[in-house]
Amino acid sequence: MKINLKWRVLDLHNRKKEEKEKEHAPDYRKYTFSRKEILLYGAQGVGIAALLAWFFYHSFWAVLPLSPLILFTFKETEKTLIRRQRQRLADQFKDTILSVAAGLQAGYSIENAFLEAGKDMERLYGDDSLMAKELRFFRKGLRNHVPLELLLADLGIRSGEPDIEDFAEVFSIAKRSGGNLNDIIRRSAAVTGEKIEVKQEIQTLLSSRRYEQKIMNMVPFLIMAYLQLTSRGFFDCLYFNAAGILIMTGCLAVYLAAFYLSRKIIEIEV
């Protein structure tokens, strides 16, 4: 009696979690800014435009023609947040399929193995983690008699991660072929886990290069600030006249092009 009551309480708890979830599963190829993030990144964009206006034109009025940089900052920030979001999802998916493989070895069916993996993800990453939410979507879909392979295929499409899409495709083929499903899933889980681990190692190596890139982006401003402090009036001939404005605009264009190119070099898709 106590055991049945415990399972009923757990089931009610899971249902409440599902009711709090959005009606539609998220698309990880996009990012929705919260109101706080809009204010934060908006202030960041204004600060960057003000910094460029002061160093290149020595006038904060130049923020007005440089205001499109605020939108550019938003776009670049969105790309960064999407990349981090997809990376978190891939990391958690790797642990999910390893948990599924362990569940299959323990004798669970493939559907129950995924549901048990959801509990593992909640313990590892918390109730609000990406894969914990996804596996709650899976639970809801399975209750509505949606095949597991369709749920995995939908996750692969929404994630934009080739490894998740490949796993979903292998799973669908294995389910249709009627072979040794457990063995196929364990092998594909191991291969997918290894690929994601390699990506993690590459991203770790690239993180130091990203840090170096941020330092290099600040070097021109540090040099200009040093010259302005130690040699006052050194740049006066470049401000408040047509020729100086044209020269500084050209320098700004070169700097922005170098900044954009360095971002493209660092943001390697692996």
TrEMBL record:
<keyword id="KW-1133">Transmembrane helix</keyword>
<dbReference type="GO" id="GO:0005886">
    <property type="term" value="C:plasma membrane"/>
</dbReference>
<protein>
    <submittedName>
        <fullName>Pilus assembly protein TadB</fullName>
    </submittedName>
</protein>
<dbReference type="InterPro" id="IPR018076">
    <property type="entry name" value="T2SS_GspF_dom"/>
</dbReference>
<keyword id="KW-0472">Membrane</keyword>
<feature type="transmembrane region" description="Helical">
    <location>
        <begin position="38"/>
        <end position="56"/>
    </location>
</feature>
<keyword id="KW-1003">Cell membrane</keyword>
<dbReference type="Pfam" id="PF00482">
    <property type="entry name" value="T2SSF"/>
</dbReference>
<feature type="domain" description="Type II secretion system protein GspF">
    <location>
        <begin position="99"/>
        <end position="225"/>
    </location>
</feature>
<keyword id="KW-0812">Transmembrane</keyword>
<feature type="transmembrane region" description="Helical">
    <location>
        <begin position="241"/>
        <end position="261"/>
    </location>
</feature>
